[in-house]
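Mods, move this if it's the wrong board.
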Amino acid sequence: MPPLAPIVLFVYNRPDHTRKTLCALANNLLAKESSLFIYADGPKENATDAVRQAIATTREVAKAEQWCKEVKIIESATNQGLAASIIAGVTATVNRFGKVIVLEDDIVTSPYFLTYMNDGLNLYENYEQVVSIHGFMYPCKEELPDYFFLRGADCWGWATWKRGWDLFNPDAQFLLDEIKQQNLQKLFNFNDSYNYTEMLQAQADGKISSWAIAWYASAFLADKYTLYPAKSFVENIGFDGSGTHCGNNDGYTTAIRQDYQKMTLTEIKDSPAGRATFARIFTGGGGGGGKKNPSPRVWVFPPTIPKKKNFFFLFLSFCPNTTPWWSFFFLRRGLLWEEKGHSAVDSAGTRLNNTKKHH
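Not the wrong board. Structure tokens:
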């Protein structure tokens, strides 16, 4: 049997979320046979005493138990930021071990998460078209295959090989130019259900800082595919207002999978049913789990918001009950505005100007 993939977990200043994530990970069937590397980011120069204490408490949680067979904690003395931390940590791990499973401090996993990830990594290791394995799936009403592929890559509880991560290109302008040159905008934007090209342009212009949009675009341009489960193996618990890159919204509440259907080889091609489901959700179709009408936060306009988006944000601000799933998919795939500091960030490490609190 091939060796199990090492796990990397990125934490910062949320001890309660970190504890829940680690407890769930420790309950995985393969935890006692796995190696865990915890990257603990450090404080910014102007960090308050409260933030510094939260960072210290988070590190105490990480050291509290033997969560896996082997646990190594890499503590940063200064703040690297989420994007830089993930890029450095994933790169170091795949260069050493050839593969990696990636988690953040608010990703609670199913007991079968590690089983699913390692089975996927082993099954598709020699299939160059497969770039990664993904653990999260939106709550949805459709009957989807147990496992299916979509072109590109994703960022909530995922795994890849060195050959996959080697494709990562942080040059957003290059990626955007290639997408336009090949006339792939509509496909890249999930049939124009969400404007990923605009997000990539913002990254190229230096308005945001996101590793995830570049990861998605890199894999997409290389015509590589990511495996998704029909039912989610993870839940993001960060939508409670505690985090920098997630707001106060429980629209992502989804039942974590408590069983495991052994995977067999699936045809490596873009799933029409999977793509249609994503597009429906992105355009406000909603899902089948969680609250039916999760209320968004009160949105504010920082000076960096493009004027053409003002009506959209006003609509969210004053009509929350009529646009619940707009806020849902926008939180996951778009830009999220924090109440404090009137700053803008997204769930994958993106932030705009004037961010007072960020990882």
